[in-house]
Amino acid sequence: MDMQEKTRLVLELRESTDESVRNTNAKVPTGRKWNAQTEVDQAVSRLKHQEVMGRVQAGRAGLGWGAMPRFWSKANRKQRKEMVVAEVTRMEEDRYKIKAVSQGRQGSWTTWEGIINRNISWTDVWKIPQARLSFLIRSTYDTLPCPRNLHQWFGSEESCALCNAPNASLQHILSGCKIALSQGRYRWCHDQVLRKLAEDSKQPPSAEDSTIFVSEGGVRRSTRSRETARLFSPNQEWNMRVDLDRQLRFPTEITTTSLRPDIVVWSTKARSVHLIELTVPLEEGIEAAFERKKAKYSELAVECREAGWKTTSYPVEVGCRGFLGLSTIRLLREAGVTRGKLRRATKDLAEEAEKGSFWLWLRRKDRCCGKNT
Ligand SMILES: [Zn+2]
Asked: What's the superkingdom here (predicted)?
């Protein structure tokens, strides 16, 4: 019996209206490696799961452009049978695909360092458009049809449509393509996140900060006091410059330099300056990006200190799939973003990064598209 026949037989037995047949719980003889019952159980749970998550399309069809998924809950018995058989077949194909694609790379997300988990609630799942959700999941597991994966799945010769690099990986498309770089695509994505980050970090001390709780023990200040906002000490005038159009001039009252950190925040009165440098790397490279930026700006920090300024530098990372570096959370906390707002802020930053990457992905074959399209 082949795999599909066995699957059908299991379903026959399960759905049999004849009590005696159902109760015998007859085992279908299968080979040692492939267990029809387990496979059918898995297939059914996958079908139910897909109904909630939206099917993650595989292969050349691209993002969510395949046949519309039929919904398990709405299918009749005959359709369900077809769905299970198709699903078991697909599961076999997936297994083959996983074997074909290097294990190390598919599971590389398990080795990401220095990132926080993204909490995607069920409400978010419903709100995110299916194509973007599909992109998020498939980019995380590296199963998008990028030239390298197409090459490994189908053995065809594929190359980057922009720069002709052979078997270009997802990493190439999201951060390594010379043409995309020269067209300003990466800068554009980076600046979308930067704009959000600047907005978030300069939130004025909110009313919540001085909330007074009247408890039985008397009057006490909220635990979210301004003392936690180490970035902007209160009662000082703070200035902020953001390098959005590559126009930032470093404040000459501090020092003269050709370096342009992404954000400079300074207070003349407090003689204090913060240098914030944002990277939107692939999650795999978050730790490395942090170290690289730290090294790049440490010299500038030394110069500022020599000029008599209290200097802090904050290299922060927002992964291009929307996973935030711990450094980003640290910065937001020190900027005095309260816990309630932190959730919103991290979610916005994650979405901004992920949307940018999705845009890069969708335009990966679009040669003439610059940053403004
Ligand atoms: Zn390229």
From this structure: Eukaryota
CATH class of 185-352: alpha beta
Q: What is the whole-number distance in angstroms between the Cα of residue 7 and the centre of ligand 1? A: 44
- Report which listed range, 6-10, 61-65, 336-340, is most confident: 336-340
Measured in Å, residue 351 CA sits from the centre of ligand 1 at 24
Judge whether 199 and 341 are in contact, CB under 8 Å. no
**Element (DSSP H or E) covering residue 218:** strand 218-221
Q: How far is the CA of 137 from the centre of ligand 1 (A)?
A: 23
Phi and psi at residue 209, to the nearest 5°: -60, -35
Percent of the chain with pLDDT over 90: 23
Which residues have C-beta under 5 Å from ligand 1, the single-atom ion?
A: 160, 162-163, 165, 177
CA distances to 172, 230, 324, 366 from 163, in Å: 10, 45, 29, 11
pLDDT given at position 62: 34
Report residue 143 as tokens.
Answer: 């199963």
Query: How far is ligand 1, taken at its centre, from the CA of residue 276, in Å?
Result: 29
Section 24-43 average pLDDT: 63
At 95 the pLDDT is 61
Token pair in block for residue 229: 């906002």
pLDDT in tens, 240-297: 899 987 788 899 999 998 888 999 999 888 899 999 999 998 877 777 778 888 888 8
State the Rg of the chain over Cα.
27
Q: What is the pLDDT of residue 335?
A: 84
User: 147 CA distance to ligand 1 centroid (A)?
Assistant: 10
| Ligand 1 centroid from CA 287, angstroms | 24
Closest CA to 36 of 70, 1, 80, 79: 1
CB neighbour list of residue 201: distance below 8 Å, 6 or more residues apart = 231, 240, 263, 265, 276, 331, 332, 335, 337
For residue 93, report the distance from its CA to the centre of ligand 1, in Å: 29
Q: Which residue has the tokens 């999650």?
A: 283
DSSP H helix total and E strand total for the chain: 14, 6
> What's the mean per-residue pLDDT of the chain?
74
Query: In 10 A of CB 198, how many CB atoms?
Result: 19
Provide mean pLDDT across the span 39-49.
75
